[in-house]
Amino acid sequence: AIRPIERGSVHRICSGQVVLNLGSAVKELLENSLDAGATSIEIKLKDHGAELIEVSDNGGGVEEENFEGLTLKHHTSKIQDFSDLIHVETFGFRGEALSSLCALSDVTIFTCHKSAKVGTRLVFDHNGKITQKTPLPRQQGTTVSIQQLFYTLPVRHKEFQRNIKKEYAKMVQLLQAYCIVSKGVRINCTNQVGQGKKTCVISTSGSPSLKENIGAVFGQKQLQSLIPFVQLPPSEAVCEEYGLNPANMPQNLYR
């Protein structure tokens, strides 16, 4: 007989389709920080992210009235109905990331909104409901801690731990891309294995220049092999050949 799947199971299955791997977990949290207007983002990993992923920022923080909806599925401040999608200018908009991470791991959020006098530490269960709420001093911004990613899906968790080095390498590639395009944002990522020393994975200085970001990610030597992209208007001969009017040609055709 065809019967509906129990709702809790549906949520767990679907959450594994939103957060697929280590890279997508870090990406979702990093995008939340960028959407919050952060200029400084710290990413801490323990055991390459298998034990802990922690993303801290100095963004706008979360208002108390939004604590409840923060981790509930399809709760978002970005859109209200389908037509709003045309005007989305943020990275996140579906309200799925935090709710999925709650279903797949142990989530703690520590936040202080710019209007709040003191920060709040929130602990969530796998349904995205708040189980603990304590006031704690913190500067403006938000810290999200993800412990034991995928441990609620035993088979996926085993596979995740077995391939953690590969997962980590892919995550670093994704992180490099965000570090390059995030102008004016300082991004720093560290990894700690066991009780060992923290090692720097990637670090940018918050430069407003794309070129400097590339230098920070791939080293100054790599910059020397880049060729600047210069746009030149088509010559008269080319315009004539393609029947173009030189006066109508836009100055910057490509961006």
Automatic annotation (TrEMBL):
An annotated Gene Ontology molecular function: ATP hydrolysis activity
Give an example GO biological process: mismatch repair
Q: Where would you find the membrane-spanning parts of this chain?
A: none
What SUPFAM superfamilies does the entry give?
ATPase domain of HSP90 chaperone/DNA topoisomerase II/histidine kinase
Any one GO CC term of the record: MutLalpha complex
**InterPro entries in UniProt:** DNA_mismatch_repair_CS, HATPase_C_sf, MutL/Mlh/PMS, MutL/Mlh/Pms-like
The entry assigns this protein to a family as follows: Belongs to the DNA mismatch repair MutL/HexB family.
NCBIfam families in the record: mutl (TIGR00585)
Query: This protein is called what?
Result: PMS1 homolog 2, mismatch repair system component
